[in-house]
Amino acid sequence: MEGDKGQGADFANANLYSKGQPKESDPSKDNNEEEREENGRKSSPHHRISTEEEKEEEEEREEEDQTEVQKEAEEGGPTIELDGKKMKLTEYLKKHSSRYHVCERGQYLEVRNLSYKITTKQSQGIPTIRDFIHPQKKEKKELQVLDNISFILKPGEMTAILGSPRSGKTSLFDILASRRQFGEITGAVTLNGKPQDNRWHRNVSYCVQGDLHYPRLTVKETFEFAAWSQMPELTPEEKKHERVDLALQLLGLKHAADTIVGNETLRGVSGGEKRRVTIGVEWVKNPNFFLLDEPTTGLDSSSSLDVGKCLKVLTGLGTPVLCALLQPSWELLSLFDTLILLSGGQIAYQGPVTEAEEYFKGLGYNCPPTYSLAEFFSEVVDHPEKFQGQEGCQDPKIQDREGFVKNWRESEMAKQRQKEMDEHFAMLKESNDGNEGNGTVQIEQGQPRGEGTSEVEMVTAKKMKKKLEDESLEADEKSAGSPQRKYPTTLWTQLKLNIWRGGINFRRDRIRHITVILNEIFIALILGALFFRKATSQSDATQLSGLLFFTIAHLTFSSISNIPNLFGEREIYYRQRGAKYYSVLPFYISNIIWSLPATVAETLIFGSIVYWMAGLNPEHGTRFLFFLLVLVTTSLLCASLSRACGAILPNAVIGSLIGSSMIAIYILFSGFLVPKQKIPDPWIWAYWISFVHYAIEALSINNFAGLPLFCLNNELVPPIGDPQLNVPVALGGFGGAQTCPLSNGGAYIASSYSFHTQLSLRWAFWAGLFGYYLMFTFITYLGFRFCNYSKKGGGGLGGMKEMPKFEEKDDKDKEKAVKKGALMVFKNICYTVPVKGKEKTLLNNIDGYVKPGMLLALMGASGAGKSTLLDVLAQRKNVGKITGDILVNGKNPDKFYHRLIGYVEQTDCHYPYTTVREAIDVSARCRLAPEITKEQREEIVDTVVDLLGLRPIAGALVGLGGGQGGINLEERKRLSIAVELASNPRVLFLDEPTSGLDSNGADKVMESIKKIADAGCSVICTIHQPSQRIFSRATHLLLLKKGGHMVYFGPLGDKFKDLKGYFKEKLDVKCPKRKNPADFVIEQAGAGIGRGNSEGEKDISKIWNDSENNKQLKSDVDKLKSEQKKEDIETFTKVYPLPLYKQFLILTWRFWMSYWRNPFQLVVVIARALFLAFIFGTVYFRLNYDSYGGQLRVALMFVTAIYANLTAFAYFPVNFANRPVFYRERDSGMYRTTAWQLAQTVTDFPIIAFGTILFATPLYWITGLDADAAKFFYFLFTVLALNFCALSIGQLFGVIFPSIEAAGLIFGTIFAIFALSAGFLLPRPGFPVYGIWIYWMSFLRYAVEGLAVNELRGLQFNCNENGGIPVVVTGPDGVQFTRYYCQFRTGEQVIQQFGMINMIWADVFVLWGMYLLATLLSLIGLRFIRHAKR
Questions:
Q1: In angstroms, rounded to a whole number, what is the distance separating the alpha carbons of residues 134 and 130?
Q2: Residue 593 has what pLDDT?
Q3: The pTM is what?
């Protein structure tokens, strides 16, 4: 979130109205209700007074605040600029009230008795291979996610929902947005009495968790697409532009309007700005109600408050807002009118925010002084034990969650809310029945804005102030579309919008298109060089047919590398499809349209180079054009097949596996590797459904039909030197007669492959290709239409697992897990990075220190450099330049530095297949001193587990997280701390350990960190959006402003006295008593939308530099530097505590757990091996010893070699998934790179060997290869070497390349060239002199040669009339007749034909040598290459 800033509406000093836009008083509210509201306000933190002095100060401050609010109200709120004119927001809203339905023209959302339950299947314990062999019976369990939820959202009302993880918040939001597609839902959800229907999405905007946008669109383009897709089609263009411009200004995104959104690999707007983009795209549609699921996650507290103010403005437009919040400040929560506390899927409180404290006080629970009310509300229901026994409170009446829920349902407040709902329902029914005589207003039920009448307030006629002011605009909006239309726009408009967006994506993805084109040119040049200007001899015809086959095979396999990209784009489609931006057809047509230019261009360039360099049939231009047509059609077909995999299959791993397997089978039945006449009858149907067969036959007819062939002298049969050539005919010889086997290309393809020879039939096969393209296109459409694998996050299940309670450990126990901290001093720290040829400074002369037992908090606005400073101090930066002094106990960081520190990263990256305790134990075993005994180590691990409250989940699998199984986010945070604490660090660094947690989870994590500091460790921690309670756990603060400038360093003081005193003295600003000091100092440092950039603002960093505090800090730093020399310095003699072999054993065990505890992965290995062995074996079933027998055996060896490609490609996702874990652990100094590489290799060995044996053994015997034990074991040994060689090359590519897409593309290219050079498609005699080096480099060549020679040696073949070459001879009586010549009578002749060499043991050892070389290069790459730049 570096660089998060805004220059839109001025929110720096705006305290937007706590109740939205001014509204008329409600005459239906009696005096008692007003009195309750007044009492509620007095019970808020604004009125909690302990002494007369504090009371006077508070009254003085309240008077100042009221004056400020009045001033802001008079000023009319933020200033906006539209059409070059500046005006106050309130002035704009008043002017356009009818258009935006201000306040009284909102809509009522009513939820009545809503319940939701799902049925799950659960098994006990961690799944292992043992469970696969003996499956457990999974229990069906019904989970009640939501239970009897009822509430109402009124026009212009903001409602906040607070709840712990698994409380059901996201499930509730999904149901309200009509997006929950499974489970049993009962109850009613209505908008002005109208139930949910297929047009419900027209009324709601739903801002979900996570920011998914097209990364290459700018912020403004993203808003425009949303506005044009969601606003009524007949809304004037200028009004849509105005709406977009207003959204940009209100959300502080005007400065970033022309910046691309970006993603993990494409730099765009900051994380905070992207969160506001997510809110904006939903607001521009002008919804009838607005749902937001944790919209402030990832923002600092000041920016979160500004987003809340933006929502308050939107509420002022008449839109009711329901918002789930995570760790809200009181300032943010106080912007809301109503509060709902959700626990275990049930409501524990629903009512005004200002009355909530008094309600719980009546139950015996008072908010402690160390808690803000927002924290108190977030935790009191789920963790009442924290708030019992408070001074001035009676004994609690309720002790658990069920009691809170029951008490609420029986309370007078709940009954009053229910009464209001019943009255609203009755009035609505009367109005719908047309009973106007009683003074009620006839309404339209829940019409989407811009369609039909929007006056829907359910009140009596006397409460309606006025009619719509702009009747003409209202008429336009009424006609904006048919009331029955599901989408706001027509199909044609949706198509135009998708094409417009697709064009932008296409133009801005130039680098990828250029890369692919260059890759195709490279392969085409290789092909053209190897087959350069082939003639029309017999051998040339064979080689050209191999070229045609390879051309099609290359196009098909190339499409596999695109599959992972499709899954990334699919998530965005799912989100926009759920919001009904467009229907499936326009989206899919747009995809097809914009896939054409790149695919066609790549294929045309590739095909043109290959055709003319290889010298294919030059007759007429039509053959060349038809060649390109077939290639383009095949490319489009394969792209459509890849899209079908992306639309139908659940994830990229399965998509790549199934996609590659399907293409391999299509190629096997193409008619080239196994001619039609040799395919077994049970498999002949596969030949006719293989689209690769249609492509190859079409190209073969196009090239060879009518093409005359000739024979070189050595191609005449019988060849010169054949013993039967000159034997008299009468004696069975040929009497010197020779013949050219094939005189034209048609005869060649007919005799060799049983292809047709009539030129016109090529169009029939092209039609078959095009038909397949249409079929896969339709299947893809069905996949997008009916399949939905969108990730559901956050909507946890109530009551699945109790949150662990902390056990307070005494000092003796703490000392077992925490070593005495070190004194760290840093002075004049500067950090610069190169940006576009210039140096950009991220840290400017930072000074400070941390002592044992001290918890130093690093805070500042987004982009201030908090994480950057933490990385610099921990020596984790691998780019840029660092200057200044960093001393730990008087020593500069050296190669042993990692043994002194622990670094808890923000990403919580762990190996998924270990348990929580095992993860901690692995860290301890690798990082603790070797003299520590096993018993001592286990005691330390147990103490860490208890210290961090992980005992209840110690045996739980860590898992992948993020909705994919395993422990939850808060538990992962504490595990990250435990893993580092297990190493007994002297200094502990933590990067935003509370981000993404709810209030209780964040408090538990910070409680753990405080315990560590209290035990004597030196702790430096960046804190994001801290509450007052969390902030109070720090002892010192280092505050930064944007640009990496210091603002403050020093102790917080008792009740933040020192911190507040500095800002009061130096900046003349006083922290309000009700305000969280953390929020106050962050705001002073320039956090929030539009802050830190205005002219006239005080330069607080200069004030700090000139202050006495800074001079005292520099003096303290110099003094500590000199004192450090007197400290006892811990010395190390080894970089790693453990020797290599022990690290190897630990990692080998952990790698093995990934197979043992992930039986599905082993099932895939077994199933793929047996399935392909069955397919290949039955196709080549019981190979004969006729004239085709030798060539089919070589083809079988080639197919076996291709299997290695599938093995290597299947492991790509695993390699890339493990890489972040390796980077983190390597930086922590857990083990040597060699230990990781050796452990991974040794662990993979038995699995790959097992899969190879399952594949090779049945294949060998099913195909009827030579029943010789020595040959069989050589076959097995060579296939094993081949698979390991391919796997090691795939791992090497996983190390070298930054992404799985790039690695897959390059690996596919290299493998294709090696397959071409394997000696089958282009035998060694056919290689030109300048290209023979490729033949010797191809590892597949050694496999094919070794396997083929091993099988063919000593074999005898025979011919019959169907296999021999007819030679016309003249008998003794002058009569001519045909005698058949058997071209291959021995295996040695076949070996000679392919130019193979009898060196089978050399071949297999070359494979093992290449395997070792690739493994060594991977080791070197892991040591020196790191793609995660810091």
A1: 6
A2: 93
A3: 0.79
